[in-house]
Amino acid sequence: MLSSEKRYLLEVSDLRDVAIIGVGETRLGELWDKSLRELGIEAGLKALKDAGLKGDEVEKLYVGNMSAGKLIDQEHIAPLIADYAGISEVPSTRVESGSASGGIALAEGFKAVASGMEDIVVVGGAEKMTDVGEQEAKDILSSTADQEWETVFGATFVSLYAMMARYHMEKYGTTKDQLAQVAVKNHSNAAKNPNAQFPREIKKEFVKNAPMVADPLGMFDCAPISDGAASVVLCPAERAESFHGKPVKIAGIGQGGDYMSVHERKHICTMKATERAAKKAYSRAGIGPRDIDFAEVHDNYTITEIMSIEDLGFFKKGEGGKATEEGKTDINSHIPINTSGGLKAKGRPVGAVGLNQAVEAVLQLREDAGERQVNEPRYGLIHNIGGTGASSIVHILKRWS
Amino acid sequence: MMPIPRFWREIKQRYKGIGSVCKNCEKMYFPPRKICPECRRESFQNMEPVELDGRGEVVTYTEIHEPHTEFDKHSPYIMAIVEMKEGVRLTGHLVNVDLEDVESGMKVEATMRKLGEESRDGMIYYGYKFWPVDE
Questions:
Q1: ipTM confidence score
Q2: Would you say the pTM of this structure is higher than 0.80?
Q3: Residue B87 burial by CB count (10 A; 0-12/13-18/19+): exposed, middle or buried?
């Protein structure tokens, strides 16, 4: 119907190749002394410095942000950040798609450069979540589900994922041990990441015995509430080598959609939006899941990482839990997943997540990831989910040479 | 809770369980839709209201220990995705049963209940919840 027969006005070959020439991010965590604009500027300036730019070269700014209106009572935040970054004359746009806001902002930046509209584009993601209480922040996360037909009846955001988890466990025999292993692995990776909110290892028993949040998911199956920002600088690949930074290529992107409510989806523990996004991204990059050397996936809950590594094609449906338990997703194993620590342990500044993932993928592909470096990666994939899976975005990044 | 008018607009559907059926392909939807995602434009102005029978079975479920503020007094409570006899699925609170007695495939029935209230003197929100029924 739509996708298979679709003829693109511009063939992929007509688009310009796009490179990431600089990255920057703040530390993630409860950063009470820093405002949203300070976080955004800090990440942006680090990315510009990394690219060797002064700032006046910037032609366009995109900002991924989920809910500044509710979290800090401030809308219109793209010009707010541009202004205090000293580039008030630069056109800026906020992009919102729930927790996929960051990833989708990156896709918009890619399109601006690929189409030839702009050359130097900065894409940032920023979220300030701890100015409100933890309960209020969680209620705001829930507003990315369908308020009229899910949350009004008492469903919380995590409860919707908990129901996916039970479905996966009953259908495929996935265990609480396997869920816990996702948290153990991601904490172990975060222990090697200086920007992580929780840079420390945890034991599996600790995860399994944590207080229940929404059965079968306990406190340590859940990503935290975080403040933080991340940013990348894009330019046409043909100009990438003229800057100071080490470039990385964006080899393919794909965005997918699905029903808003979890109950509308026939197969409750498959995210069609992710399958659709991945299919497009692989096709545009001209590769398949076997060619990917590492991935940053959206692990807002432990079950989400297990579902996502299946939906992205790394493992067959139902085998994600077992693969995790067997260590196949550890650093320098079969397919390293969330070397940064993921949302689970690096942190979840919700609208910035997609950019935090991009920063990690670029560091890995430049072999700048320090202790958590994957062995000579060629392709890295990043995957960002909006809400409970009604939107999803996949980028495939490639080593420069 | 959402703004009162946003709740009020869907009261009829929420109180009576009124969905819609596409007269083009006969597929049923709840909550009601103006457009059938299968038939798209061909279904426009061709969707008719239909009342659900109210019986169904549990597809998946969870027990919530950290609720939204307005559901605090129910904590912990069970939420379920229920597949209705007509094939549509919905999300709701499962009452009159303990977690260890809930299982997927369990038969349940929709019942009208208070969902919450704005404040002591504020508006009361009603809607469906589910409880177990014998086969």
A1: 0.95
A2: yes
A3: exposed
